[in-house]
């Protein structure tokens, strides 16, 4: 069940039974020579929507632009400054809380977002402390690749060349949902270099095609299907527990 594809009486009826919602959150940033710019937002969205369909969980609109300054030397990347993202997440949370939502499960697709998401949670809780007394609002952050069962599956599917950016796992998840996006691109070098990340220009100098430590030419629709199935199972179990906490 998706919020933006629902009518308000349906949300009112959902709230009578549950105060919890999943919000996919990601980024719009370069993902190497064969990965979609939307990869991080799409992975969270694909997994959240399937979990929503299977378990009757309400899924909010995707927060699809995040912390991507370090990818700005590659065309197509869009970034928010951290203060903008914190403000926007706070407004989303307050809007949902106004209607009675008390548990916001943010399913994240971008590692670079985590510090800012946690800062946004502090801002949200600050507002809840000093605002009018309301039932407690709780937020939870889960990176999809850290869901129970998923980390091990990534290692099993791609023991070499998983890397940390433009990974075969995340590219596979998007190809599973959008098979028309499959691109066969020869990677050179086969496995990308690794190293520290500074700003956008430094990033492009160190990682000229955008990848870090990965070989996403290994990505496949089949692997994506396995990863999505495992992640959906993990989200449903964890969300149910969080909703009742
Ligand atoms: Ni990514």
Task: Give the arrangement of secondary structure elements.
Blueprint: H1 8-17, E1 20-25, H2 39-55, H3 82-98, E2 103-108, H4 114-130, E3 138-143, H5 150-157, H6 168-177, H7 200-206, H8 221-243
Parallel strand pairs: 1-2, 2-3
The protein binds nickel (II) ion.
Structure description:
There is one protein chain. α6 (about 170-175) crosses α8 (about 220-245). This protein is mostly helical and about 240 residues long. It has helices at about 10-15, 40-55, 80-100, 115-130, 150-155, 170-175, 200-205, 220-245; strands at about 20-25, 105-110, 140-145. Helix content is about 45%, strand content about 5%. It has a three-stranded parallel β-sheet with strand order 1-2-3, with helices on both faces. The model has no long low-confidence stretch (mean pLDDT about 95). The protein has one domain (about 5-245): Creatininase (Rossmann fold), CATH 3.40.50.10310. The protein contains eight helices and three strands; from the N terminus they run αβααβαβαααα. Bound molecules: nickel (II) ion. Nickel (II) ion (NI) binds near residues 31, 39, 110 and 170.
**Cofactors and ligands:** nickel (II) ion
The pLDDT mean sits at: 96
**Spatial sequence of strands, sheet with the most strands:** 1-2-3
Number of strands: 3
| Highest CATH level, the class | Alpha Beta
Structural class: mainly alpha
Q: What is the distance, rounded to the nearest whole angstrom, between the alpha carbons of the first and last residues?
A: 22 Å
Indicate the percent of residues in helices. 40-55%
Question: Could you please say which CATH topology applies here?
Answer: Rossmann fold
Number of helices: 8
- Summed up, the domain count is 1
User: What is the CATH H-level superfamily?
Assistant: Creatininase
Share of β-strand residues: 5-15%
Oligomer: single chain
- CATH architecture classification name: 3-Layer(aba) Sandwich
